[in-house]
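Z., the sequence and structure:
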Amino acid sequence: MSPGVPLSAVVALLREVGLLVEAFGTTTAPIEGAAQDSRRVEAGDVFLAWKGTATDAHDHVASAVRAGAVAAVVERRLDDVTVPQLVVSDARRAAALVSDLVFGHPVRDARVVAITGTNGKTTTALLIRHLLATEASTASVGTLGVVGPDGRIHSSAGALTTPGPVELARTLRDLRADGVEWFALEASSHALDQRRLDALRVDVAVFTNLSLDHLDYHKTFSAYRDAKLRLIELLKVDGQVVINAAVPAWNRVELTRMVRYGIDILADVVADRLVCDAGGSRFRIRWGDQAADARLPLPGRFNVENALAAVVAAVQVGVPFEVAVARLATGPQVPGRMEVLRRKPFTVLIDFAHTPAALDNLLTVLRPLTAGQLCVLFGAGGDRDRTKRVPMAEAVARHADRVWVTSDNPRTESPEAIIDDLMPGLAGVDYRREVDRVAAIHGVIAEASEGDVVVLAGKGHETYQVIGTERRPLDERRVVADALAARGIT
């Protein structure tokens, strides 16, 4: 059992980084842990409070103290709190730094690859974890939760691509205690903007792609891009940057320690001779005077880009080029990413695609692989970027023969109103409208014919649906099995 961290060490850290405004109160009680949710406070914790977009944690400091918190990091002093208060100028950043301190700087001596971009973070992270595993015990942390050194999901996915600062520090500490030496970490634009990762220093920063998303939060595309680019600030002194050369938005990045990758494009690392089919992809990778033939059990040009990013990152960390390329052939199936649930008499697959670019990429791959009709079921998330709704529908309309428009995670928005927002993008398209996602899945399965490809887009790995503020169970794998059984298909 750790003896804990003295409050004086927390004060010294916050003062050193210029965050401490004023400290009130003293205590000899050691800090045993950290919490940002008053419902999860344990005795000896420091409580980390800031004003968020939906709630203000300062309203819960007193509850945290009653639960056992021995100090609080706050953005304003509270009169009714009896424990020491450390007032800081940026409590989000302070939370990351304090959590890292309290949990023992878990990855200070580890190798860390961080991946950001609009799409492809999860697939790239899992491929990187897979490639690095040849050299050291490696885990990934991201949308799926924690994927351990054995390649299995060890904790279910939460609501965030990148965990909050306390959960992240605790998770990394526990993985280090289990012997994990290297990490692949998904870095969302929200996490970077909110300084959740500020305690980390990364060996390799990977930038996959950039397209329309999250403008409800970032407001402008340039602000969204700039949030992603904050990852460069977290590089170690000798850290490397890996960039998709096909993305114009990354062009402002000019560093000496940078490798650009792409398909049939002027770049440092290039894939050519690309052949994709339903079983995966074959291509050659050229890097300077090195070249190797690669196989990937994931179809699609976008997955080849993900594989290129993974190879470059792995080599930068220390995996030999030939080893990394060869290991792509045994790359993992990523849950909820072009995950095939049924192949006969028609194909049924689920995918997490929920942006215009992701839908376009997905359906571009599936269109030539479809012998019959391409049937797409999709919706848009509520309380999220409304500007992407029509482009999402337009992407579906460009490729699909039949469309079912339904709910994704409507949250506190009206499901019918969300569908109304999608309608302009489906002008002239044969579509069905069904707000109940389970009923919609049964409907599209009931109408499918031999040779068709049925795509259930938007939920992917998620096994729930958020309606209002309630998270309700919804596992599309089970719904599909029920729908097939209703047709007598086993």
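The chain has three domains: 7-96, 111-330, 339-486. Residues 127 and 331 are 6 Å apart (CA to CA).

Let me know what you think.
H.
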